[in-house]
């Protein structure tokens, strides 16, 4: 495959419109994935409601909406509304490991019963207007599950299979199974995307003929230029890290959402010599003006 694409991972509770808009301004990311929305047969939102959900997101953002669902009818209904709203591709979240998601047989739970997964995909794919991208884990309990999972998806034509190379039981910490990914991902008939702990351009060096690219999550908060760096594009003509972090800080301070900002600053702080001290300074501030002034003084 030609040049690898770079995608921004969905990060619920961390990344929404202000971050997406700022990173689209920086550049380097071909696609930006929205955090998941539930597709449940009892509550399919009206098109206007869905459109409003993305109304703060700039036109520069090439957005891929993501759905969490275990129901083919609900997934098709919501994905087709999104297509009509102008989103040619929708992602299916089959990787979320959170207990209240998995206990309702959604997210990574769909990878447990591969017969059921195949039925679900069969009931969905022929009826979808948008292209289907799927995000999975390398396994639920063990990375040894990966080859059999790939085989199921090989029976269908996907836009891509994005693999967070941790198991669901690992949640978001511990080492990704990068080598297991490299050993087995070549068997995927669908284009495949690697995800998990990429924090600098040198780590985006997997060589597989069917590798479409990389999805980057937390690493892009600490280093918003990573997309440009992976592509070998210049970073000196775009927002600096200081401008990037300040722009986002200004937005959340103006909207009084310091909780979200503090979550982001856990990752921004890693850019400073003493991250713990930087974060500790900000953590206790509950006044927007003071928060903004403190951020300015940090730079
Ligand atoms: C706070 C948080 C929220 C997340 N929200 C989502 C989500 O809505 N949908 C999803 O598919 N993955 C979600 N993820 C997983 C990330 O998209 C990504 O797969 C994971 O962080 C590994 O990539 P990274 O090491 O580059 O961050 C979330 C992860 C974190 C830490």
Main sheet record: 8 strands, parallel, barrel
CATH architecture of the largest domain: Alpha-Beta Barrel
User: So, the CATH homologous superfamily of the largest domain?
Assistant: Aldolase class I
At the fold tier of CATH, the topology name of the largest domain is TIM Barrel
Strand content: 15-25%
Total E-strand runs: 8
**Ligands bound to this protein structure:** flavin mononucleotide
Oligomer: single chain
Q: Rg, please?
A: 19 Å
Percent helix range:
25-40%
Total tally of structural domains? 2
Low-confidence stretches: none
Form type = globular
Can you give me a brief rundown of this structure?
The chain has 13 helices and 8 strands.
């Amino acid at each position: 495959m030609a040049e690898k694409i770079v995608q921004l991972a969905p990060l619920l509770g961390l990344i929404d419109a202000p971050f997406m808009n700022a990173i689209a301004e920086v550049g380097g990311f071909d696609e930006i994935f929205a955090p998941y929305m539930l597709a449940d047969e009892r509550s399919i939102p009206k098109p206007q409601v869905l459109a409003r959900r993305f109304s703060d997101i700039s036109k520069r953002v090439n957005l891929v909406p993501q759905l969490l669902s275990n129901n083919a009818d609900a997934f098709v209904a919501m994905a087709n509304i999104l297509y009509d709203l102008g989103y040619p591709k929708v992602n299916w979240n089959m990787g979320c490991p959170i207990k209240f998601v998995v206990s309702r047989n959604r997210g990574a739970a769909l990878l447990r019963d591969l017969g059921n997964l195949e039925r679900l995909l069969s009931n969905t794919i022929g009826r979808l207007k948008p292209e289907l991208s799927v995000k999975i884990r390398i396994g639920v309990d063990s990375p040894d599950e990966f080859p059999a999972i790939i085989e199921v998806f090989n029976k269908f034509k996907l836009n891509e299979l994005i693999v967070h190379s941790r198991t669901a039981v690992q949640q978001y910490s511990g080492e990704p199974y990068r080598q297991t990914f490299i050993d087995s991902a070549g068997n995927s008939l669908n284009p495949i995307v690697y995800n998990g702990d990429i924090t600098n351009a040198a780590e985006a060096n997997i060589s597989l003929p069917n590798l479409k690219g990389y999805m980057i999550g937390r690493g892009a908060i600490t280093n918003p230029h990573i997309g440009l760096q992976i592509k070998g594009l210049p970073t000196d003509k775009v927002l600096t890290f200081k401008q990037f972090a300040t722009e986002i800080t200004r937005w959340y301070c103006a909207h009084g959402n310091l909780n979200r900002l503090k979550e982001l600053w856990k990752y921004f702080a890693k850019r400073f010599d003493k991250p713990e001290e930087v974060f500790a300074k900000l953590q206790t501030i509950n006044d927007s003006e003071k928060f903004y002034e403190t951020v300015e003084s940090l730079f």
